[in-house]
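hey team, just a heads up i'm posting the complex here instead of the shared drive bc the drive is being weird again. everything in one block, sequence lines first with there labels, then the predicted structure for the whole assembly after. its two chains so it's a bit long, scroll down
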Amino acid sequence: MSSVESKSNPKGSGVRRFAESAGIRRKFRQEAMVKWLLAGATGMMLVPLILIIAYLVFKALPILSVGFLLDNPVKGMREGGVWAPFVGTMYLIVISLAIAAPIGVLAAVYLNEYAREGWFTRIINLAVINLAGVPSIVHALFGLGAFVLFAGLGRSVLAASLTLAIMTLPVIIASTKEALASVPMSFRQACWNVGATRWQTIRHIVLPNSISGILTGIILQVSRAAGETAPIMFTGAVFFKKVQQGDMFPYGLLDQCMALSMHLFTISTQVPGVPMELPYGTAVVLLATVLLVNICSIVLRVYLRSRKKW
Amino acid sequence: MVKQNPKIEISDLKVRYDDVHAINGISFDILENEIFGIIGPAQSGKTTLLKVINRTIDFSPEARVTGRVKVDGKDVMRVGNVYALRRKIGMVSPLPVGLPLSIYDNVAFAPRMAGIRERSQLDELVEKCLHQAALWDEVKDRLHSLGTKLSGGQQQRLTIARALSHEPEILCLDEFSIAIDPVTTMKIEDVLKQLRSKMTVILVTNLVQQARRLADRTAFMMNGELVEVGSNDVIFSDNPANRKTYEYVNGIFG
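-- predicted structure starts here --
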């Protein structure tokens, strides 16, 4: 290192460079400025977040209650709660992740641990990245064509979940690959050296040490699955569906369902005469669901991190 | 000296990574129950040679291997059960690698992967290997704490204990003392002297004096070629067969 520096600057020795006190003062000033800049940016990010939550909760306050969650929409959505769409969103989250997570993790393990560098893996990696960038409305049209029409599932919970799964899959693959890659190569070599197979190495060393990252990546997709409207609008979510109050399993796989994001869209734009607090209440429930899942993921990650061993 | 059988026979071995020639045709035998030193500057193909011997070269898909390396008379590149081959060889890398497991599990890892489940058998093996690696006394009271929390020198001995845990017939050490202090190095060197009676030891080292102290025979490699191989009496004498050997050993170059 030092030889390279002295080559690039043959006249200036180390002593001379460190003696520049004016430069030092500038450096300190720079350091302080950068620190405040970075802290300021962090603060700016918090402001809208807090404002959004505060505004939503304030607007929704008159209507928020346990009953709002457990009641069904009534009187053409102009009164009542959000039970049917809430359960519908839960259905979509759970089923889509149950499909996407295992496939995504297995594919990522293959890509990161088994696949050799070559044109095939390069194409797959490119596809993963590009698929992650496809707008959700395009996924919606694909889901409509592939699942609703071609596979004959009709507009249903299953078709909507499959569409959401296709949408979240590339992101799960990418985040899982990153988590796997964070496990040092030397661990794998140590395992191979003592005669462990690739799978034994993955099973006993790589996965236990990347599981927190893998789970975080998966759980982050919950908010996408919960929040997207376009992909489910074409493939399974409906304007209204009658559901028994408090029924945990009101929909079959081939039924259509309501969903919070869709419900929010319809009552705020499609139905005249809805009291203002109703859409805000719906938004708060949607936000709370996502936040709750994220908080669970953070707790889980902290727990798994604490067991991380290097 | 008693006539010893060759444990590893290397003939005309060539390895190249894409366009880089790592080893350009080397041939020599490594005998049973000897400490065989390999010295030479960086980029001379020492580590690559070890990778071929235990077939972990497989994990560098860009590597092309020609020529022959036989362990116990069998060509390693054609061996059917590569995992059994690797278990026959203990490998210690330059930087200590404590697996993110407890000390006990670090040592018990290889036997477990080989299918040993019995607690008593594992206990016995772990104690034996940690004794052999001169680590037992320091860790016997905390076998179930993390291996990665040990100091560098202790971790390197843990690595050696792990390399011994599958009861290898050959122990390869790749510059094992690069990250540890001289006192620990001496401890491990004593261990190696004891292991000589039980197994073949290949000692790749940057420290010429270490090869002189420990090895029975030494090979000097440079730029992927074998400059000279012979008993230490010759290699470290004033008149080795090749002038370059004399110059390297005595620090005139390299």
